[in-house]
Amino acid sequence: MIDTALDFGKIIIADLILSGDNALIIGMAAAGLAPELRKKAILYGMVIAALLRIVFAVVATKLLGIPGILFVGSLLLIWVCWRLYEEIRQGIDEQAEFALEVAGDPHAGYTGKPTRTMGSALLSITIADVSMSLDNVLAVAAIADGNTNMLVFGLALAIVLMAFAATLIMKLLTAYPWISWLGLAVLIYVAGEMFYRGVFDATTGIGPMMGWFEGYDLSKGH
């Protein structure tokens, strides 16, 4: 029971701190459009991000049981941690907060005649969202560890936070930077645990798979 509660807590923190990228990209893309197009760009950007998360979650669920995938996933998550560390140092949350506020203000940002189409803005958002959605889903899937309810919760929470509370979250993370550092610590722990299982797990670890050693039963409950 305590372990489950802790895992849900990890998912909430991961969703919070990994929402900064999406908020920044969507806000910047929307702020560069004429005021009458911004609300649509933000809405469509959120929908694209949500759909990508759903697709990646389905794929992740199918793949994580394949021998060797946990190890590869742990390396990707370590890279996510490094990128998040750089973003915290560069103040990405503060930039995202400003971009969203500009996008929401019809008198701020670009206010002339449309010089950029909605399609080009959404293309930029989609390209950036591919990487960001994968980061979010990978972290949540690693924490959920095959628990479908937990995975659905993490996915739904990420979408809800992104759609209805993006600006509020950016303000929160800007005002209290320690939340971002706490989230980074949680992700480092998750990545380390995932790496350990990816090497030593008797079923999916690369060690037993390559015949280096027998491995251990590291599934939930052991």
TrEMBL record:
Pfam families: TerC. It is found in: Membrane. Its main location: membrane. GO terms for cellular component: membrane. It is a multi-pass membrane protein. The chain crosses the membrane at residues 12-34, 41-60, 66-85, 150-169, 181-200. Keywords: Membrane, Transmembrane, Transmembrane helix. PANTHER family: MEMBRANE BOUND PREDICTED REDOX MODULATOR (PTHR30238), SLL1022 PROTEIN (PTHR30238:SF4). Belongs to the TerC family. This is YjbE family integral membrane protein.
